[in-house]
């Protein structure tokens, strides 16, 4: 086997066109990735020509870009304490409109918080630090009692239908400063409607407000002072839409906005790691062409008989070709992505876009995963080439099977349903290995392939491609043994 691999490596490196073609995948991946930020610009102006608010969103405690806009009625709490209130139902509100009790490290957007809350359509929840969400029971009554307690670093959210029998929604440990703000809040996210058609997608959204009541409010540990109202993160042009009234301790609060992580979405100012790898499809095309020609050129030139004579074990010849092209393609894919990630991200930041953070482990998975995507796809091309024996036919088959479904899915050419099917059942499922964004159940957003969300996990998508490659290798092995050269 070693001699076969050495012989195939010698064949490959002696054909300059194959070497150049494979190396072309690297600049293709990087340069197409750079086209997005270098060809993009945006202007930002507020009412009456005034400069609008910055395009960089607040950053949560873990570095995640977040929404942090709501109306907050609060008092200062030093040390331990609690707040209890009976909260009215959110009628005719967005499903993720929220009203509840909140403890927050100041009133700056992005600061640490914990909340127990009632939603418009998802029951009682305990949420903290934007990304964390704990589901509680669905309310039995129109009004629901809530209680939020701080004891040292322990925050406990509780709910009750009658104010006497309490059940715990969640308990978390968070490190706050000695002084925090404690009180009640209301938020209501943007209403989003998405229309998917053949040829494009239309997202329509509009801001919303929600109003509800808080009565029988009790606090322990908080300063005995009047309630203060703060429009946290709300555009000054909309502050007249929110506020609160205090009728002898019974409060009515109107709020807008959301307290949640910002999901990635197509066309937004937030960029993800996979945005930097958008050119990988072009690099993969170059790899597939070279792999297909490497497998079929000996048939076209009529010298495959010589190879079979030198190595009568035809399956071994197929394996050697797959090892050589697969190994080289892995290196090319890994190098391409390792270069594209920092270069494209730097260009995006220079153009004013903000980055959804990724850990170094995630970036390592993207680099190695792109290498595996290139390698397994190249093996598929080699196997199909040995089976079909025609270069043009093989190139067409692998590009249509691997790259075209991906482009149709992520370019919003197809509605969401067919797009998700394509990147589930075709070899293009392997592009899921490049997904770095997280889907948040507590945020209503468009989670589609066009936004970077694949129906399969990164590993699951790669397994689909491996399955196709394995079937192709088996068919090619059978064909090379049974057919004449």
From TrEMBL:
Superkingdom of this protein's organism: Bacteria
Keywords, in A-Z order: Membrane, Transmembrane, Transmembrane helix
UniProt-recorded name of the protein: ABC transporter permease
Gene3D superfamilies recorded: 2.60.120.200
Membrane recorded as keyword: yes
Transmembrane segments: 18-38, 276-296, 317-344, 364-388, 395-414, 459-479
């Amino acid at each position: 086997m070693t001699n076969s691999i050495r012989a195939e490596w010698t064949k490959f490196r002696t054909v300059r066109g194959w070497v150049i073609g494979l190396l072309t995948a690297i600049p293709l991946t990087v340069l197409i990735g750079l086209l997005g930020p270098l060809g993009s610009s945006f202007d930002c102006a507020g009412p009456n020509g005034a400069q609008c608010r910055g395009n960089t969103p607040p950053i949560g405690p873990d570095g995640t870009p977040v929404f942090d806009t709501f109306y907050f009625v609060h008092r200062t709490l030093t040390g331990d304490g609690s707040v209890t209130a009976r909260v009215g139902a959110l009628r005719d509100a967005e499903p993720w409109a929220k009203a509840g009790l909140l403890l927050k490290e100041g009133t700056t957007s992005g600061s640490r918080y914990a909340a127990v809350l009632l939603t418009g359509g998802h029951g009682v929840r305990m949420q903290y630090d934007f990304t964390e969400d704990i589901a509680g029971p669905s309310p039995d009554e129109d009004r629901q009692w809530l209680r939020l307690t701080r004891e040292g670093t322990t925050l406990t959210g509780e709910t009750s239908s009658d104010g006497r029998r309490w059940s715990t929604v969640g308990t978390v440990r968070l490190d706050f400063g000695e002084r925090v703000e404690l009180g009640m809040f209301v938020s209501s996210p943007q209403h989003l409607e998405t229309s998917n058609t053949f040829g494009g997608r239309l997202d329509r959204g509009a801001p919303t407000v929600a109003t509800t009541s808080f009565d029988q409010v009790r606090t322990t540990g908080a300063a005995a002072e009047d309630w203060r109202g703060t429009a946290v993160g709300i555009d000054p042009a909309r502050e007249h839409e929110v506020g609160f009234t205090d009728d002898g301790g019974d409060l009515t609060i109107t709020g807008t906005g959301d307290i949640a992580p910002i999901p990635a979405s197509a066309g937004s100012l937030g960029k993800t790691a996979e945005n930097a790898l958008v050119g990988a499809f072009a690099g993969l095309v170059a790899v597939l062409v070279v792999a297909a020609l490497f497998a079929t050129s000996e048939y076209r030139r009529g010298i495959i008989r010589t190879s079979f004579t030198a190595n009568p074990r035809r399956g071994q010849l197929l394996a050697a070709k797959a090892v050589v092209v697969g190994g080289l393609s892995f290196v090319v894919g890994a190098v391409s992505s390792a270069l594209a990630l920092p270069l494209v991200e730097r260009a995006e930041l220079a153009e004013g876009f903000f980055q959804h953070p990724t850990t170094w482990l995630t970036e390592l998975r993207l680099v190695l995963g792109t290498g595996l995507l290139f390698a397994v796809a190249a093996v598929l091309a080699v196997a199909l080439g040995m089976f079909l024996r025609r270069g043009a036919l093989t190139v067409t088959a692998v590009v249509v099977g691997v790259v075209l479904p991906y482009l149709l899915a992520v370019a919003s050419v197809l509605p969401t349903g067919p797009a998700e099917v394509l990147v589930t059942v075709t070899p293009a499922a392997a592009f899921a290995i490049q997904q770095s964004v997280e889907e948040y159940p507590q945020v209503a957003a468009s989670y589609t392939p066009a936004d970077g969300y694949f129906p399969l996990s990164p590993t699951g998508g790669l397994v689909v491609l491996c399955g196709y490659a394995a079937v192709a290798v088996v068919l090619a092995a059978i064909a090379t043994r049974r057919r004449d050269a």
